[in-house]
Amino acid sequence: MTSEDLRQLVYKWALKNAYDHGGSAQEKAVISKVIAERPELKTIIKELLNAVREVVGQVNTMSLDAITQTLSEVAPELMIDRRTDAKRRLPPLPNAVEGNVVTRLPPEPSGFMHIGHALSGLINYLYKEMYGGKVWLRFEDTDPRKVRPEYYDSYRDGYSWVGIRWDHEKNNSDDMELFYRNARRLVEGGKAYACTCGRDEMRRLRSDGIPCDHRSQPPEVNLELWDGMLEGRYSEGEVSLRLVGDMSSTNTTLRDPVIMRVVDAVHPLTGDRYRVWPTYDYAVSIEDAICGITHVLRTSEFMLRDELQNLIRRYLGMSNPTFVEYERFEFEGTPVSRREIRSLIERGLVSGWNDPRLATIASIRRRGILPQALKEFVERYVALTQSRKVYSWDLLYAINRRHVDDLASRMFFVKDPMKLKLDGIGELDVDLPLHPTRNLGNRRLRVTGEFYVPAEDLKTVGEGGRVRLKHLCNFTLKSVTDKLAEGVAELGPPEPGLKVIQWVPVNEAVEVQVLIPGRLFNPDGAFNEESLEIVNGIAERTVNSLEVGSHVQFERFGYCVKDSLPKTFILSHR
Ligand SMILES: [Zn+2]
Fold this sequence. Notes:
Blueprint: H1 3-20, H2 27-37, H3 45-59, H4 64-74, E1 101-105, H5 115-131, E2 133-139, H6 149-161, E3 168-171, H7 176-188, E4 192-195, H8 199-208, H9 219-230, E5 240-243, E6 258-262, E7 276-278, H10 280-290, E8 295-299, H11 305-316, E9 322-326, E10 330-331, H12 338-346, H13 361-366, H14 371-381, E11 390-391, H15 393-407, E12 409-411, E13 413-415, E14 417-423, E15 428-433, E16 442-447, E17 450-454, H16 455-459, E18 466-469, E19 473-480, E20 484-491, E21 499-501, E22 504-505, E23 509-517, E24 532-540, E25 551-554, E26 558-562, E27 568-573
Parallel strand pairs: 1-2, 2-3, 8-9, 10-11, 12-25, 14-20, 18-21, 23-27
Antiparallel strand pairs: 4-5, 5-6, 6-7, 13-24, 14-17, 15-16, 17-22, 18-19, 19-20, 23-24, 25-26, 26-27
Helix pairs in contact: 1-2, 1-3, 1-4, 5-14, 10-11, 14-15
The structure holds zinc ion.
């Protein structure tokens, strides 16, 4: 072994040891790694000790960034982290029978799907997978005023993207005749009545817990009015069907809620065929029963309604599911309510429903959140509790980063570029790996001696200083001005202690912009005027071959996603 080979071997292990320990290598640890790899070196222990002392000294002057960059060049295989796959499963489900758990995804198609729906959907899906059974996709679309056709597909696409395969699909609006039949049964059984109180009157009486006179009118009158509703004799608000609940209950949802009402609006699926529509609780109670739902897993804002829905089913002789409630998913600084998002769009503060700062599925896909990261987030971190919990994007991003790292191609990107001319390099083609540890193939760059490099990296290196262009060469800086640096290159392996920089050959350069989405709201609730930063820079031409949605790591900058906007990338995370 030549002394240069020995130095390279020591260098590799010194970098690895420093990489594992925050930038600081230990001589002893390096010696034992070197000897483990080449036991015959014990015979020249003195020479080895000298090399280790010298190389570790140099490595310990390097920044952690330079150490990482160099290690990824000389021994990328040593960077594969030992991942702990201590997978936590979701907590057991009460009353679950193996092979017979039926859950549901119950979106209301009145807005675009967002991250909360995805996480909730995953909980329902993962439980069905865990025990075996079925999961329904059921559109709760019985409010014709709110429902829009494009939103159905938003959920179908979103659930598919997140990896959910549902066993059955239906719309509540398919079952109007069923809702009518059961409403008649309730009226005939004295469990529902037709009320002609005005809206304000009804609200006042419900709030005071006082029944109106219609509650005690004879069933024939109720049936007459109900038939009149179906025949179109009444306009909106004139008559509604109310459940006989408990007017004195502290749970106000039980105070004789409306279950059927006239709505004069065209439904996107059924057109103007129906004018009498079920309310949410009434439709859901019946649907959960006839779909055979065994477990209703949902966010706790629905909790007061469980009692009402169980009452409706009891009146109809239907069985009740087990309810598991958890707090809704909130992410710091990010609105998920449709009203709030719509207002941001109308005020021009965000560009649309897929603005990369939002939490709709279209937005989070645009900024590179992967479905496997959402799944891991649910399995490992979601607490099915009813105490309010605001999740941090950082946690989700940290999970996402590990998944993205495997599939992101590495490419050079230079922010705030300056030109560098190097002598001693000539024209050559270099093949560079697209990934340091996975076999994603190479890309080829033609080098001519003129490069763009980050200005800030050369500023601190004076004339005569030495630097490495990653994967290419070391060079000595001869002169540097604001616009241009010149130097002399020596091709060869990395040298201990050298700063490592990114580069783009001038003839391979394309201009790109990177959008950096931040939090829309500051902790004090005010809109963050700096929530979208734009960074311009130069990237290697290879980026043009990336498809929209591809992940790329601009080394020393961050993980980005190729966007559908021209020449644009969106930063996922650093
Ligand atoms: Zn009344």
